[in-house]
Amino acid sequence: MDRQRRRILAAASGAGIWGALATLGFVLPRSAQAAGVFEARTLDQAFALLGAEAPQVSDQVVIVSNDTAENGDAVPVGIRSLLPKSDLLALFVDTNPNPLVACYEISEPMLPEVNMRVRMGASAKLVALVRAEGRWYRTSKEIKYISGSCGI
Amino acid sequence: MSTPTKIRANLNGDVTEVKMLMSHDMETGRRKDGNGLTIPAKYIVEVQVSHNGQRLLRAEWGYRVSKNPYMSFKFKGGAVGDTIAVSWTDSSGDTRRDETRIA
């Protein structure tokens, strides 16, 4: 079934139809920016603006990072989902004035994992939020910021 | 003029790994210059990545993403020679688009 879908997509892209469809489909969903989620001042407020009321804590959502950070300006962090049909991944830092760091809409061919680097500046709790089949899941992880250490 | 985004896309089995490094100061709007004046915010707010013109990922970022942002992910269905395009838009409206081919 998937293979057939690929062929159809390939054919459509050849005709330039897919591009037009894609543009339509991708522009329409309300963005986090438009919804003001980046201006939210608390996690609960940010979740509510995203439409993620009371997400379920799940071990199927994983924050991939070290437990400590030596360079608070660029802390490598990944969000990985083990839930099928995950289509939105978001990362928050719980100690900021504005908790939302980044929000990713991912397509079906993608493996549900995105890696990035984040400014932290202090020890903080990271929170990852995932939408899969219309339901919301979350997990969190503390990262300890050690200024000027050798990583011990 | 902005600097090109460095993009690597490598096929391994049936999975393509895409890694990119954008060149951008990601000014938070919270820093002050030598005269105590606030440096205006200017950071990437949106990134789109496509595979042969079909969108793979759309990212929305805030000022908490590090300077010269790095991003990586994997996807299925790519083939050697396919085009991977990365475009970003920052909070001042500047944009940039770069592409590479899967190796």
What distance separates the N and C termini of chain A? 51 Å
Structural Rg of chain A: 18 Å
In the predicted model, the low-confidence regions of chain B spanning at least 5 consecutive residues are: none
**Count of β-strands of chain A:** 9
User: What average pLDDT do the residues of chain B reach?
Assistant: 96
Attribute tags:
heterodimer, A: alpha+beta, three-stranded antiparallel beta sheet, globular, B: 103 residues, mainly beta, four-stranded antiparallel beta sheet, 0% helix
Describe this protein's structure:
The complex is a heterodimer of chains A (152) and B (103). Chain A has helices at residues 2-15, 17-27, 43-50, and strands spanning 56-57, 61-64, 68-69, 75-81, 86-93, 100-106, 110-118, 124-132, 135-145. Chain A is of the alpha+beta class and 152 residues long. With 103 residues, chain B is mainly beta. In chain B, 0% of the residues lie in helices and 50% in strands. Chain B has no helices and seven strands. Chain B has strands at residues 6-12, 15-21, 44-51, 54-61, 70-76, 83-90, 95-101. In chain B, the strands form two sheets. Chain B has a four-stranded antiparallel β-sheet, with no helix packed on it. In chain B, strands 1-2-5 form a three-stranded antiparallel β-sheet, with no helix packed on it. Chain B is elongated. Chains A and B meet through α1, α2, β6 and β7 of A and β3, β4 and β5 of B.
Describe the protein's topology.
The complex is a heterodimer of chains A (152) and B (103).
Chain A: H1 2-15, H2 17-27, H3 43-50, E1 56-57, E2 61-64, E3 68-69, E4 75-81, E5 86-93, E6 100-106, E7 110-118, E8 124-132, E9 135-145
Parallel strand pairs in A: 1-9, 3-9
Antiparallel strand pairs in A: 2-4, 4-7, 5-6, 5-8, 8-9
Chain B: E1 6-12, E2 15-21, E3 44-51, E4 54-61, E5 70-76, E6 83-90, E7 95-101
